[in-house]
Amino acid sequence: MNVMKFGGTSVGSAQRIKNVASLVSSRGRNIVVLSAMSGTTNQLLKITDSLKSGDISEASTLIGQLREKYSKEISELIDDPAYRDEALSKIGGIIDSVATKLDKKIEAIDEKEIVACGELMSTNMMDCYMRSIGMNVAFLQALDFMAVDDQGEPDLDYIEAHIAPLIAINPDADVYLTQGFICRNADGEIDNLQRGGSDYSASLIGAAVDADEIEIWTDIDGMHNNDPRFVEGTKPVSKLHFEEAAELAYFGAKILHPTCVLPAKNKNIPVRLLNTMTPEAPGTLIYNTEADYKIKAIAAKDDITAIKIKSGRMLLAYGFLRKVFEIFETHRTPIDMITTSEVGVSVTIDNDRNLDAIVEDLSAYGAVTIDRDMVIVCVVGDLEWKNRGFEAEVVNALKEIPIRMISYGGSNYNISVLIRKEDKQKALNLLSLHLFN
Ligand code: ADP
Ligand code: ASP
Ligand code: MG
Description:
Elements: E1 2-6, H1 14-25, E2 31-34, H2 40-52, H3 56-77, H4 81-99, H5 108-115, H6 117-132, E3 137-139, H7 156-168, E4 175-179, E5 182-184, E6 190-192, H8 198-208, E7 213-218, E8 239-241, H9 242-250, H10 261-266, E9 271-275, E10 284-287, E11 295-310, H11 320-330, E12 338-340, E13 344-349, H12 355-362, E14 367-381, H13 390-397, E15 403-408, E16 414-420, H14 424-436
Bound molecules: adenosine-5'-diphosphate, aspartic acid and magnesium ion (MG).
């Protein structure tokens, strides 16, 4: 059995939902995981923002827009009046649940409940549509099996134990359908796996049921060798090692959620990135691929802050780095990149919520300087250091660009450079030109 996850664009209109149903029904009995229709999660977040700022009239306008959009899509999607009315009533009920929040002071749990509605709506529409065309759908509610612990980490044992019986009682289903993104937290409340988290749902479900393959169906034919939003003429990469895919996802390749690789890797389940618009394209296979000593792809992560701590006094005496890292740990701020010298350390963070407190604590150890609006550009491939020249090629390609930090050797798979935001587009294009042409 495979897991097939369809992203927002893939279910972005009545026609696309029909295409997905037909694609799914041609591929045998699999688990289908859906995101919200594209734009819906953002719209739901706008509703929570208006509610938080007390703008009830804006919130009800936005809710009205949702009602209109969904009743139009459902009318276009389902011909059979019985199934169409069922869908209208189910989606209407979900939107009503959002509208009940207009009358109250909204709290964190209300926001989570509102933002969960996107996946509830898309899957209910798909369920009614598939049944209307005669498919035998087992509709699995993610809220019955997808759970995170008190640290927000998915509880794979729980997921395994709770999804298995839901599948077992439906042995004859043509398809198992469920929601991505949404889950329950340790208090049993509705929660989610963060923006873009449907990929993570798919990979957790794949790991939980020991799937043969996890397919991430999206709007592009696989992982490209550079970010197609900034570079023209990028090409799909046919194979990636799990580690390479993880580096690319973490460092900004939006096609894959950063956390999605690990559950698949731990269970040795191949992940395939495929295009809903051209299903016959081979896409990208992510697996324990053979070493091939090649640079595969480039990604960029925005909104990075660099922090330098410089001191004349034997800064790197033993114990010093521990003290620096402890400060970041105390302020619950992950570090992405590190470079060191005898007199200083530079690190980068992508979450500057606690920056002031971090700087204050670091100041006890030396002069602290900050560079904001930086970008990590990450070159990924099978870059084992004994195969000379990878870093030289990267630095050479970027010789016109001021580089604030360089990091290589943390793994065999990544060379990262830190540059200014305004140089990002040029840097990505120069790298493509030099590394892939
Ligand atoms: P979905 O809604 O299906 O989850 P996403 O929008 O999250 O889709 O991811 C697909 C998008 O990721 C593509 O449309 C593309 O613009 C963007 N993207 C960024 N980097 C890459 C890359 N290296 N390869 C392919 N797509 C990428
Ligand atoms: N609908 C959610 C989002 O837009 C989850 C996802 O699409 O993966 O972030
Ligand atoms: Mg996505």
